[in-house]
Amino acid sequence: MNTNGKVYLVGAGPGDPGLLTLRGLECIQRADVLVYDNLVNPSLLRYARTDAELIFAGKSAKKHTLNQDETNALLVAKAKTGKVVTRLKGGDPFVFGRGGEEGQELREAGIAFEIVPGISSSIAAPAYAGIPVTHRAVATAFMVITGHEDPTKGESQVDWKTVAQFFGTRVILMGVERIGEITTTLISHGCAADTPAAMIRLGTTPRQQTITGTVGTIAKLAEQAKLQPPAITVIGDVVRCREDLNWFERRPLFGKRIVVTRSREQASELTRQLLELGADVLEIPTIAIKPPKDPAPMREAVLGIGTYDWLVFTSPNGVDAFFRVYFAEHTDIRDLGGLKIAAIGAATAQKLAALHLQVDLQPTEFTGEALLETFHKEVSCENLKFLLPRADLADERLARGLEDLGGIVDDLDAYQTVPDTEDRTGHRARLLAEGADIVTFTSSSTVHNFCDLVNVPDLFRQFPRLRIVSIGPQTTAAVIAHNLSIAAEAKEHTIPGLVETILDLGTP
Fold it and tell me: Would residue 37 show up in a list of annotated catalytic residues for this protein?
């Protein structure tokens, strides 16, 4: 009986995590071991199981963490222990990705494997630079060539004369450090020096850099721009289309690096909106959501839910935490009985709407003070019983205010927020090394934990252009309490309101 595991050779795409295939995502999520390359966007690692073993096997032109033989041996060894191994490779594993070599090694070792194609940078990077590799009026064919061949071969297998005289588009992968030699060779074989050319670095990512020129000038332009690998070169008349089709680099937040400090579970929506606007997003979650230290009070409240008049939610996390306990004890949403529901914020209301629950009381301003004022104006709270399932460190003013109005309040810990110190994607290291334009805070706990996680005074001294944007007044108060300055506070205390504020902030 074969007790070996299985290896998935997965194309991770060209850099934009949104270009990962659904099958590729499935393979990341099921992996016991994830082996990933230098060109794989580290944001994809967040889809891995928390217990998965992550192994970096990156290679660049001058630096190899593992050489190819060592990588092959690693895949075989891990699979022979019965594990599911996902090998993540930039672009497509069979387009200059050495996936064929790895597959042959696995076949010889008797290991089951599957190839999961990915989107190659040869077509994706030009597309994100506004350059179609084919165009009916310009180029009816394209070729893809490596600019960095196996040095052990001794003699080049590239027929540069054929490349020089090819009638369509030529895409050269890698080869940044040889671009002068390559273009000189092309010209010597008959390629016109005035043929349009472009080089695209880190294509499809928010750090994309594009330079355009001609075959005769592109090497000098790349030197002047200090263009570094990884980059591809596109040669042909299609480069002229960039003037009309350059969509990616014209987005309003392109070139801006923005830090998202929300928990991993909540970060996706803010990250998605910022990415769609072109931002380079660093997800540095400062809080993790955990069950309360003592779950008994919340469980008792849920078992006696019929004794309450009002259920008050102040955040989406509170909704999730409460109903996690509720459905562990009740099988029917109708067991809530006739109690009424109050909520702060559109996101909280949306969570409830997903459960087909209507909110009876919601202030127009998304703060605890506004909710308290709404209760004061619209509800006689005398002797009514309120349940507030909230975070362990939640502000007590709402609960005390309801008691002042005559209510009987159970302000219970539905969940706890704890510091998230893991840097699985390397985004925190990038912030400390490269800085950012904006740090966003969406709660007071994100502020406190960020200041515990990062030496903030040093960060702002090193990167004085860094600015803080807050989602609302309580978060702003927490920022000020740490002796930090606020560049802007969202007028509407929601994720869309926060994004709108960032757009309005402009360039410092």
Answer: yes
